[in-house]
Specification:
Elements (H helix, E strand, L loop, with lengths): L5 E4 L3 E4 L4 E2 L1 E6 L2 E5 L7 H5 L1 E8 L3 E8 L2 E8 L1 E7 L6 E6 L2 E5 L4 E6 L5 E8 L11 E3 L6 H4 L2 H8 L3 H9 L6 E3 L18 E3 L7 E3 L3 E6 L7 H4 L2 E7 L4 E7 L5 E15 L5 E8 L2 E5 L4 E17 L6 E3 L6 H4 L2 H8 L3 H9 L7 E2 L4
Antiparallel strand pairs: 1-2, 3-23, 4-5, 5-6, 6-13, 7-12, 7-14, 7-15, 8-11, 8-13, 9-10, 9-12, 11-16, 17-18, 18-19, 19-24, 20-24, 20-25, 20-26, 21-22, 21-23, 21-24
């Protein structure tokens, strides 16, 4: 993988590696595993106060109830399962989830996840760590399990808080041997999910109305406060982009100081990022399972391989605004002819040729014939 580094100016100079990275397993067992991206390997996570992780649950895998020090957006990468969601001072919602579902998880929400199917359930989490214990990392607090709150309090405190006899408390604590993820017996019956509980909590990005649809180019579904109101509480926007084979995504940047964190869901393609002083700070191949970050105001463009490429991104504002530099909606089209001639130091013929191109295409460009 060919990597070019971003040079950040501080008191001295240091290089920040923008090369896409894969997640590494933090813990797991026969019920599944929890994987995370570390700011020590992807420094822009710490710089941008962004956390990234995912869970993979095998059949009958159960991710124990927990809450986090970070608000997050969850995206179901694969499979079908059940999510339990308890918003502060609200009743539990037992939600059926499937591939393409996005959920906004504000501070204080308690969640659990379960998979009873043969196919693994895989869920991506991207979120804001500006209030977290560690910049660029999620810290989860489990209600049960070997690292849950019951194991931390003394028998006396648990007994008094929950009005239980001490022998009952010892039995409760003694049975909590699993950490984070456990595997349940196949005969164990979990709560049945209710479709109506999806309302206001879940948006399926593969079924939602398209915000952008370019034939042979690509499609976009944007998560915002209109179609998923909890996004406002999370403070993050998100989108699912599906780039067709050999198509190009127009060079563009976030014009409202937002940071973009992108996970490659499917396929592969090439990416270039240009930063300060016109320096190309990243040029590499993106592959499914990798995560990369575009710094604020930096310009990014991607070209899909023949099989195309899908990605899910969060943007560090709930209603992001982007400026594109090529295509019908580009900033160049808004500039007057004389300004372009002066800027490029070219004659009117060259300016007219430049302006005449890409008058029909916006955001995505189909492959050349």
């Amino acid at each position: 993988m060919n990597a070019i580094f971003l040079e950040k100016k501080t008191q001295g100079k240091m290089e920040i590696d923008l090369t896409p990275k894969s997640a590494k397993e933090a813990y797991g067992n026969n019920g599944g595993s929890y994987l995370a991206w570390s700011p020590s390997e992807l420094p822009m996570l710490g710089e941008g106060n962004i956390g990234a992780a995912k869970i993979i649950l095998h059949q009958h895998g159960f991710a124990l109830p927990s809450y986090s020090d970070s608000s997050k957006v969850a995206y179901v990468l694969q499979g079908n399962g059940v999510a339990g969601i308890v918003l502060p001072e609200s009743e539990e919602k037992v939600v059926p989830i499937k591939k393409g579902d996005a959920l906004a998880l504000p501070f204080g929400v308690v969640t659990w996840w379960y998979n009873k199917e043969d196919t693994d359930l895989e869920v991506l989490f991207l979120g804001d760590t500006s209030k977290a214990h560690k910049a660029g990392e999620f810290t989860d607090f489990f209600l049960t399990g070997s690292n849950g709150i019951f194991t931390g309090f003394s028998t006396e405190f648990v007994s008094r808080a929950w009005d239980l006899e001490e022998d009952v408390v010892k039995s409760l604590v003694g049975k909590q041997s699993g950490k984070g993820i456990v595997k349940l017996e196949g005969t164990f019956e979990m709560p049945e999910p209710k479709k109506e509980h999806r309302n206001g909590l879940v948006l399926n990005c593969l079924e939602a109305p398209l915000d952008v649809d370019i034939k042979n180019g690509g499609r976009v579904v944007v998560l915002n406060t209109q179609n998923l109101p909890l996004v406002g509480e999370v403070g993050l926007g998100a989108d699912l982009v599906r780039l067709d084979g050999s198509a190009m995504c127009s060079p563009g940047f976030s014009c409202d100081s937002a940071l973009q964190v992108t996970y490659i869901v499917r396929g592969s393609g090439r990416v270039q990022v240009v930063g300060v002083d016109g320096r190309r700070v990243l040029e590499t191949t993106l592959k499914a399972g990798s995560l990369f970050i575009v710094p604020r105001f930096f310009v990014v463009s991607k070209i899909g391989d023949p099989e195309g490429m899908d990605w899910f991104s969060i943007i560090t504002t709930p209603n992001p605004i982007f400026t594109h530099l090529a295509g019908r909606t580009s900033a160049w089209k808004a500039l007057s002819s004389k300004v372009l001639e002066a800027s490029f130091s070219v004659g009117s013929d060259m300016e007219k040729l430049f302006r005449s191109k890409r008058n029909a295409d916006a955001i995505f460009f189909p492959p050349p014939n």
